[in-house]
Structures are given as C-alpha cells and as structure tokens.
Records
---
Amino acid sequence: MSHPDAAVVTPADGQPVVLRGGTVLTMDDAHTVVPDGDVLVVDGRIAAVGSALEVPPGTAEVDARGGIVMPGMIDTHRHMWQTAMRGYGADWTLTQYFVWYYLEHGKAFRPEDVHAGNLLSAWDALEAGVTTTVDWSHGLQTVDHAEAAADALLAVPGRFVLAYGNIQAGPWEWATDPAVQGFLQRRRDEGRLGLQLAFDVTGDPAFPEKAAFEAARELGLPVTTHAGVWGATNDAGIQLMHEHGFMTPETVYVHAATLDTDSYHRIAATGGSISVSTESEQSAGQGYPPTWQVRRHGIPVSLSMDTSVWWSSDLFSAMRTTLGADRSREHLEAHARGETVTQVHLRAEHVVDWATRGGARALGRDDLGSLEPGKRADVVLVKNDDSPVSFPLLNPYGHLAFQAQRGDVHTVLVDGRVVKSAHRLVGADLPAVRSAVDATVEHLRSTMGEETWAQGMNPALPGDEVLDNPYTYTEYKSASTHDARGSVFGDDAAGR
C-alpha cells in the first residue's frame, strides 16, 4: 500500500523541502549512510542531513520511508540529439553507426530534429534520476542546430552541459569559425548551460586538432574526446595531446578502452578522468570497458550511457553492466590461469560513487555529487511501495546497482526544485514532445525512403559456422519413442 505522499509534491518557489525517514547515502568522503535519515533543502541547497531534523515552518515533506535518498546522478557523455531515433540501431556495430550518422544520413537532421531529440532526452534523464547530463552534441552542423540544441536543454529543469561538436567537419574548421565562437561566448556569458568542446583526435602526426584545442583554451572551455576507440582513436592521439600540453584535469576521455599503459599513465599524470560507457563498449566494440585499467592507474571515473539509438538511458543500467563486465573479465582471466576468484575488486559502492561523485569530479562541480550541507540540492529518492523488489532494503549500494530501475525513481529535485514527484514528471508536456519526435521520425523516413529506412534498422545478419558434431547418439534419439519412455517413467507413465 502506498504511503500518504502519493500525491504529487509541488512546493512553491522558495518553499523548503524535507525528505523524511529514508536510507540516506550521503556519498561524502566517508560514504556516510544515515538510516532513517532526513535531508532538508532550503533555497536550492542542502541545509542539513540527519535524523529527526527540525525544519522551518511550512516545509513541504516527502515521505522517504522504505526508500533510498541519494545525490542526483551525473551522465558525462550522452548524444542526446540521437534520442529521437531511440532503439533504431539496436543491432548495429560501431562501423554501421559511423556509416549511418557520419557518412550517409546524419546530414538529414534539421535544427528542429536536434531540438526534438534533446527535448526527449532531457526529460528522459530527469525521469531516471540523472540530474546532470553532458550533451555530447556532435550533430551541430550549423549554429542554428546549436541554438536548437541549447534551447531544448534550457526548456527542461535539469542541469546540462552542451559539449559542442560537428561530425560533418573537422574540429579545426568549426571550432575556429567566428559564428561558432560567438555562440559559445554568448551562451557562456548567459551562464545557464555548462559548455565543453567535443571532438576526437585521430592521431594524424600533423595534429590538425591543435587549432581546436587552442580555441577551447581561448574560450576557457574543457574538451571531451572519444579516446581509445578501436579503429578510430588510439595512443598516437594521446601522445599528441600530451606533447602539446592539451591534457588537463578538466579533460574527459570517453571510453579509453584500447589504450596502452603509457597512455593511461599520461592521463593519470595530468589529472584527467575517464567516462566509461559499459553498455556501449560491450556492444559496439570500442574495446573492453577499461575499469580494470583505471584501478591500476588510479584514474578518476564517471559513467555514461552514450546513445539511446542503441541502449538504455539510465545510470542504473550503467552501474549494473559495469559491475558485470568488470567481474566477468576478472573471472575469465583467473580461469585462464587455472585460478578461482574468491574476492571481487569492483564493488557496488564503487559504481554508485562513479554515478554521482565521479561525474561531479569530471565536470569540476564540487558543489554536486554528494548530500552535504551547503551543496546544491540535486536529490533523488528511489522508492516504490508498489513493487516487491523494494524490500527488504539491506545493502543500499547493492540495491541501487542490481535491484533498482528507473521506474523506482520516486522524487527528483534539481537545485531544490521538485521535477519528479510520486513517479511522475512535473511540468513535462510529453504529448508535445512526442509530436516533435514523431515529426522527426517522419522526416527521416521520407527523406531516406522506406527501403533504406528498413535496411538501416535491420542490418544483414552474418552467417554462423556450425561445427561438425561427432556425437550422434542415434541410440539415444530412439529412446524418445513411446516404448522407450515407458522404460524410463514406468508402464503407467507411458500409458498416459
């Protein structure tokens, strides 16, 4: 039976909010857990964390009993514009993705299509308790596309970082374009969006990307880059960045799955972080998720979902698949040595940290990622009284990593504002979002034609070689006859 807070809680502007009686994962330096704890939010910040807190008169209360109160999750790499194509590329390889978006059909996206994808993805993130998302927006063919992307993000009450990119041109071209620089300068001065530059380094010895790094430096913007992607970016790119002084603590290396030890040393030494997208790396083939490498080199980690054209769009899935991939590798390598793993290295607590504090560290936001007095009030309540999976709640980290799902996200606050309450988004006009996305899908289908559209969604299936089996068991096969069953199950069973 649901608790009395089943009604949507929509506090007035400036009204304090308290979440009462939950298991509070503060994610502070000590990873303090407060059983039967309260979190008080006043003026957009965490005012207090504790038990049986006294609160100001008129404070709105959310019943968190039986739930987990945690910091808002942070996704450091999501191609939000592609969400309008949700699930379309479920059976793609990375090569098919590159061909579809980079070479064949990515140019067909209009500014309104980028807007539709971003709008859908932004609400999608909040609904799943992801309060900050980096929009790795590499579909910005024109400044009009960029304006559309930014406007969509600003229309949704979450935190977003627009990482400006353009796969249809070299970064040395678009990053030095006065129109692009003017857009970035103006949006930075507005202060409502975080900004990055998003581009990759191919390893060309001429280092043409140098101009883009210089532009980022002049604008005072961090760079996020797909590094260590099989067949696309490699150690040569890391070496060029390092030798030219462009590896900084603000640099986020996405995937970083096929690098050698020297490259990981360079990342560690310069203070950068790695955004691990395990569902993507496992399925598309960028390389094996590098969590075992980051442990060896002490590199900070955040989590990301990459793109919903393939995969899920919540960090519960990211935590779950990251644990599974890391442990699978650990067991497989031990078995190859004839050994047995008796203690796993990567724990549920680690991936919850990566999904919260890890993202905050990657973005240089020491005011996010944990529930501590004075920090911005990005808060998530995971609670579902109508689900048998919600209890017993014994290990809160394990519950988040292996048991919880996006449908269990009960309440979400961003900067102290309730944006999801009692499992429902607040202020989201989903029919309007659906209409915009439907228009994008119709535009793409009509532009491509039905045959090309169908072929893109259903790539050819390679043949499998079935090994010859020397064990025919002809006598065993004959045992499936009625008479033989009688000898196995008895005469009565055979006669039924």
---
Amino acid sequence: MKIAITNGRLVDPKHQIDARQDLYLADGRVAGVGQAPAGFQAEREIDARGLVVCPGLIDLSARPGKLETELKAAVAGGVTTLVCPPDLDPVLDEPELAERLVRQAADLGLARLLPLGALTQNLEGERLAEMAGLRQAGCIAFSQGKRPVLDTQALLRAFEYAATFGYAIWLQPQDYYLSRNGFAHDGEVGSRLGLTGIPVSAETVAIATYLTLAADTGVRLHLRRLSSAAGMGMVAKARAEGVDVTCDVGVHHLHLSEHDIGFFDTSARFDPPLRSLRDRDGLCAGVAAGTAALCSDHTPLDQDDKLVPFGEAKPGATGLELLLPLTLKWAAAAKLPLTAALAPVTSAPAAILGRDDLGHLGLGAQADICLFSAEEPWRVTPHNLRSAGKNTPFLGYEMAGRNKATLVAGQVVFDAL
C-alpha cells in the first residue's frame, strides 16, 4: 500500500531531521521525504497534525511471554522491532526452536521479533550451541540470557569461534559468585532493610573479563542492561581504545534508584538491581553521550510473582508500553532536543544490530513508523496496559507522550488516531 503521512513533525535522529515534513511510503519502505516521488498516488493518507512522526522504536531486551499479547503491547507502545533473550521455555539452543518462534511472530503481522540464540547448549556454559544453524534460523547474536559461563576458558573459546564467523555475543555482565543470593544493591538501603546485596563489583569484574577477551579475540561484544556508573565508564574507555563493544541500559534505571525499594516494594526488584543515585546519574550521562542505547527490559509477570516477600519475588516489570514515555521523561529532565531523545531507542539500537534499514526514515528504509503525541498526558494503570504483565513501579504515575499509531513495513498495525 502507498501511504502519505502528512502535516506531522518529522524527527529522524540518524539524519538530524526535526521539521514539519510529509513522509511517503511504498512497498513497505520509505519512498519520499518532504516531497512525493514522481507519479506517487497515495492509497491512504494519514493526517499527523499535532503528532511527532519518527522511526519505530527498537527494543534491545524484551521477553515475549504470550507472544500475541506482548507483540500487541509492543506496537501499542510504538515498538516495531524487539530482541528477545534465549533463556525462554524452551531455551533457544536449536535452530528449529528459533525458526518456529520467528515464524510465529511473522505470522501475527505485528512487531518484528529478533531472537538471540543460546551461546551454549541448554545455557549450561559448557559446549557451544549450534551457532551456524541458529544464525540461519534468524538469531541475530548469541547470549546466555541470565545464565553465567563459569569456565573462563570455555568463554574464550566461544569468543574465538564467534569472532571467526563474524557473530556478535551479547552478555549481561554480572559475576555469578559476587551476585548469587543477592536481592538488592549492596548499599545503605539494602543494608538497612537486611537484604543480601549485589555489589557494583559484580558488574565491573564481569565487564573487565569480557572486555579483555573481546580485545584479545576481536569479537563484536554487546553488554546488556548496565546498572552502574563505573560500568558505563569502563565501556566508554574501552570504546575509545578501539574495542568493538556496545551496551544498553534498562530505561527504568534512568529514573529509579535503590531508594525506590521503599519498604520492600517488590515492583522495584530488578535484575540487575536498582543502584545508587550516583549510578543513576552516571547511566543518564552515558546514554546522553551516546555510549549506551536504551531498552525496556520488558518482563511480563503475574501478580503472584510479586505478592511475596522481596527476596522471593521474581525480578522485572512490564516495559514495552513505557519505553517511549520514560525516554521522553528522561530527555526532558536532561533538556535534550527530540532528536537526541529518540536516538537511544531508534538509530543507536539499529547500529548495534547492524541493520542499516532500521531506525531511520531515509529513502529505502523499512517503513517502521511511530506517530505519537509528545505532550498528551496519560496515567499508568493496569487497565491502560495491554501487556499481560501489569507490574511496574510506575503504576499511578502520569506520563507525557502517548503513541497514536504504529506502522511496520508499511502496514498499520496499531491505530488510535
């Protein structure tokens, strides 16, 4: 279908565009910006007056849960591409499993799902998974999810193998022995509440190991969900020294700290944990500087998973529908222009994925589009969330910025205009 999106405020971080321009789509791609191609006859016109028109959001970490429900939540939040980890049920360590998941998502015709394949068989950290087959099945990189590789030599062999074939490795930096049995940041709040702490060194020790192996092997390394200012600084330094490393941060870590645990509020239990105010500020600065992309770290959980003592609660919260407003809220506090605000959820994650056709609105790009009202207020309530997971520490908050329509490959998949 040929579509003209008119009268909107076009924001494209990659090309540094923030102007009132029309957008023209054909055959699932961007066919014209500002001016219609010769002979273009729109089959549908979308009036975007009063709305921001930007690339669809790319979420680097989201658990799909019940697939159709969560993909509907994704497009409702303006997320057009999402990456899911391999530690699902079943584990994505066989090509047939990954292929089936990709096909199921494609058949739904909603958001684009890109899975991470298991780095090791059954994520046990010993024998390598069938990387070549997983890659052919649609896996974009390889990861352990939340499972560690305790044998550093096995990890080195995995890095060497991946580097040889040009595969990327995505790891959550958290040392197993320093973090096991921990529930919260090893700081004043956790100590006061009597919660077993996870020190920042659990992250920095792991980062140091991964960066050393990445420098030795030349593998493309992506560090998932950083939580500390020290960790952000290590990544920035390594990038300056030429190490091929990128990273992301859960958007909730830009707004919350260990103090938001309050009196054992399980909605504020995350993995990695919420850390100090200094860490929060360091993460905000790192994202603003372009060192890190943002992700929702979406984890849909049942109420029963949270209505238990803090140490027994499952970590995580719903995030797909909050990625956009929380990103805008962070950018407003940092006084960033809209191009800089949207870069960590559009062009930056597209670059991490190595996808030149995603995350921008240049000619020939995938017609993945988000149309949102930047100022419209709305309150976060269970009723307003389409995800099966209703748990979030932001329940009751009033947000500014609401998605109104989403297109994936030129097809309207969400329409609240």
---
Amino acid sequence: MKLVAITSCPTGIAHTYMAAESLEKTAKEKGIDIKVETQGSVGVENELTLEDVQEAHAVIIAAGTTVSRERFAGKAILEVAVSEAIKNPGSIIDKALKLEAGKQNLSKQVEDIKKKRSEERSGPYKHLMAGVSFMLPLVVAGGLAIALSFIFGIEAFQQEGTLAAALMQIGGGAAFALMVPVLAGYIAYSIAERPGLAPGLIGGMIASQIGAGFLGGILAGFIAGYTADFLKKAIKLPRAFEGLKPVLILPLLSSLVVGLLMIYVIGAPVKGIMDAMTAWLQSLTGTNALLLGTILGAMMAFDMGGPVNKAAYTFAVGLLGANVFEPQAAVMAAGMTPPLGLALATVLFKNKFTKAEVEAGKAAWVLGISFITEGAIPFAAADPFRVIPSIMAGSAAAGALSMTLGATLRAPHGGIFVLPIPNAVGNLVGYMVAIAVGTIVTACLVGLLKKKVSEV
C-alpha cells in the first residue's frame, strides 16, 4: 500500500523537515511506499500530485498550522501533531495503514474532519502560531537587513542616499512596518480563512500606526478573525446576492468593527501597556534582568520548538519593533544551547550515549550554531526525565547571563552566523560567554544525570 503525507510546523524551519525525514525513513524500513509534501518557510516542496493522492491508501497530516484538506476528499485522513511524527513515526504509519479508505466510510471521515477543524479553530495558540509563521520571514529578512546596515556604522543610515540608508529602509521601513499587519492578518486568516485576511491586515496596520505594537496586532487579529467568522455564518443572503458577501459585506463590516475598536476602545490601553513594558524592559538591571533571562531561557528549552518555546520567541521578536533588543539575545542564546550542550556531552561522556546518539551529536553541533533548538529532540525523546531538566538549566543559565551582561541582538535568527556582522550584537564577548556557559552547564548536567548505556 501507498501512503501520502503533509508536514508543516508553525515556523516552517525545522520540525517540518524533521517530521518528513522521520516518516520517510520509517516507511522505508517497513517496506511502505510514501511521499511526503513539506509546507515550510520556503513554500511547498515535493508537492503531491492528483495521481499520488488517488493511489494512496491514506493521508497523514502532521501539522501545527492550518492545512487545506479539500484535495483529499474521500480519503482516510490521520491528523497528528508534527512533533508526534518526529517521535513516533512507526505508530503513525501503522495507524494510517489500518484506516478504512475510500468511500467505505466517507460520511464518518467527513464528520471527523469537520469536528477536528472546529476543534483546531477553537485553539487560540494555533491561530497565533499561524500568524507568527507568516510574520517570521519578514522579521528575519528585516532584522538581517538592519544588521547589515550597521556594517557602515551604527548611525550611518541617517545619511540619505547611502547603501546603509537603503538597507535600513528595506529592513526597518518596509519589512518591520509589515510585521504587525501580517501577524494580525494571518491570525485572522487562520480563524476565518479568506474573509478574515483584510480586516486582520487593516487592524494590524492600525495597531502599528497608533503604537500598540505586537500586542495590539495579536488582539486585532483575533478580533478580526472571530468577527469575520461570526458574520460569515450569521449573514444569510439570497443566492443571487451571495457573491457580495466575500468581496463587499464581510470585508467592510469586519474591518469597521476591528478598526473602530482599535481606534476608540482597545488601542490606547494596549499602547499604554506596551509603553510601560518597553520602559520596564529597557530599565532592567541586576536581579530583574537575571530573572527575566532565566525564565525566557528555560522556556526555550522546555519543549524545544513547541508552544512554550514559541511563546518566548514571539515575545522577544515582538519587542524588536519597540527597539528592545536584550530579550532577543537571551532567547537566541538559550535556543542554541540545548543542541550544543548535548553535542558536547556526546564528546565528553561517550559511555552515556549509544553509537547512534554519538553520531547524532555531530549533527547537533550544526543545528545548535544555526539556532535550531529542535536538534535536541532526539536526545530528549530517548531520555526525557534526565535530558529535559539538563537543557532547561543550561538554557536558563545562558539566558540569565545574556540579560545580566546586557547583550543585545538586532537579528531575530541566524545563530552564530550573524555574530560577525558589525554592531548586530551588543557586548559580543559577553554574549559568546553566555552561550559557552549554557553549553557547558547542559553538557555537565547531562553527563551527571544520564546512566551509562549498559545500565538498565
């Protein structure tokens, strides 16, 4: 039998491809023919054809974002979390093979799909991550463009007509200006699909214009999405006028609702919260900075790319638009530490790891320096009660040191590859010390807690 699958994680960077590889490798071991389409940050790759779908016994959807299922009508569909496809691919494939395919149980399949869609759309986290996944490329491109402008001097962009000014216009004037509207727009899109996009973008732009920042954008996205979804279901028109709903009635009414609420009700209080939070973060020193860094660091390692990790990362990324750069430095340092610490542990304590894990440690070096925290997942899955506390402690140490030493980071991604860019990192030496200390703490704790591979 043949299977087809789609993998897609909120950021579309690591989990998407790790899940695909995991499913393909396990299917090959079982002698099962499988084709996996990845919907990552670069778009759709290895796209499933109509022939692939028709030949498949069942469809596996391993996703943390909204995935269209219209092309799979009549097929048995198994939906799982993307992390589950990484950890338990064999179990997932076995379940998919046991599903009843085709029209034998079509009515039940349709009902199940509708129920799951309804459950997914009731989850605010899923909608938030959909917005973040579309916002992230803008933040990364914009942040790196801004960082490149600093090669010519920290204030060189102020001179019009220079390359530094052009880079700043690309990064700050364009990419960062779109950050909040796109975040809000695709939160709303995740909730209400196409009718939510226009009011979400409009609400996000208003949030950006009035200084409500990413918090205002998140609220605008949810208000726009749920408003558009409600109106879509509530407004009933004669068939002849039904075509007016998506192009005129829904965009206008939902945009007016979210726009007026942002301008007259929500905007000012949220702006006040953002201003207060920004001022507090900019004034952080000593114990307060250490505590925030510890919390952010531990969150980054807790689920290695899961909801808690993404919450910390989203918080830090959102603050870049408010010119608060310390949390981003702490978050990236803490996110690099888990795979780096485990890679170091496989070198220092080889008797605590299997041969396969030692080999995986070599790849973990590359993943770690690239700020791909998910590189720690295979180790954590094999021994969670020893590995997860160890990497949380190491990441907490890295985050705490980064904040305490006042390290700043203007690029939201890139790992060590952004470090050579002049002025992209503030207190570069202190930042590198934070990463090194976090890595060593992780490795030492893993070596202390893990048992030798011969022990049961």
